[in-house]
Amino acid sequence: MYIKVLVAAKSKKEIFIQKSENSFVAQIKEPAERNLANRRVVELVAGHYKITENRVRIVNGHHHPSKLLSVDID
After folding, report:
1. Which residues of 36-58 are buried (b: 16+ CB within 10 A; e: fewer)?
2. Core-most of 9, 11, 19, 66, by most CB within 10 Å?
3. Quick one: DSSP state of residue 48?
4. The domain spanning residue 29 has which CATH number?
5. Cβ-count burial of 62 within 10 angstroms (0-12 exposed, 13-18 middle, 19+ buried)?
6. How far apart are CA 57 and CA 31, in angstroms?
7. DSSP H helical segments within the chain, as ranges?
8. Which long-range contacts (CB under 8 A, 24 or more apart) does 43-51 make?
9. Measured distance CA(54)–CA(3) in Å, rounded
10. CA-CA distance, 14 to 29, in Å (whole number)?
């Protein structure tokens, strides 16, 4: 399954909201450097679907706030 996540890094509050079935908005405290923000987004998505982090993968948007993630929930 593919989901879209719009990420705002280096926020004061950490928020993870589901906008629609396959769309999320994430505001995270980690900065967008050294892959810290991407790792946190993967952690939040894995926690939302109650799966391990190795089943979530960023497909597109490694260097962009709008990300496409692949989630293996089988």
Report:
1. ebbebbbebbbeeeeeeeeebeb
2. 9
3. H
4. 3.30.1200.10
5. exposed
6. 19
7. 36-49
8. 44/16, 45/3, 45/5, 45/69, 45/71, 48/16, 48/18, 48/24, 49/73
9. 16
10. 6
Give the total number of structural domains in the chain. Answer: 1
pTM (2 d.p.):
0.92
Q: Residue 69 corresponds to which tokens in the numbers above?
A: 């993630």
| Per-residue pLDDT at 70 | 98
pLDDT in tens, 3-51: 999 999 999 999 999 999 999 999 999 999 999 999 999 999 999 999 9
The pair of structure tokens assigned to 44 is 């939040």
Q: Is 55 helix (H, G, I), strand (E, B) or coil?
A: helix
